Amino acid sequence: MSAPRWYDRAAEQIDADYDDGLIDSREHHEQMRDLNAELREAAEEEARQAYDGYMGCW
């Protein structure tokens, strides 16, 4: 499965900001780390909802 579109857009913007010299490599790394954490949290929430929905059928 591919990453959600919001993630792709945000990662592209971070890369563009770095390429344009608006952020340095440290900031790029920090922003990508934060974005990846946000993606993990969203995936965990989706998994939790799927689990709860499935178990709610019992």
Description:
- The protein is mostly helical and 58 residues long.
- 79% of the residues lie in helices and 0% in strands.
- It has two helices and no strands.
- α1 runs antiparallel to α2.
- The longest helix has 31 residues, at 25-55.
- The chain is elongated.
- It starts with a helix and ends with a helix.
- The mean pLDDT is 94.
Please supply descriptive tags for the structure shown above:
single chain; 58 residues; mainly alpha; 2 helices; elongated
**Largest sheet entry:** none
Count of strand segments: 0
- Helical amount: over 70%
Low-pLDDT segments: none
Query: What is the CA-CA span between the terminal residues?
Result: 28 Å
Work out the helix count. Answer: 2
| Coarse structural class | mainly alpha
| General form | elongated
Radius of gyration: 16 Å
Whole-number mean pLDDT = 94
Strand content: under 5%
Give the SSE string: HH
Helices and strands in order:
Layout: H1 5-19, H2 25-55
Helix pairs in contact: 1-2
Question: Summed up, what is this model?
Answer:
The protein is mostly helical and 58 residues long.
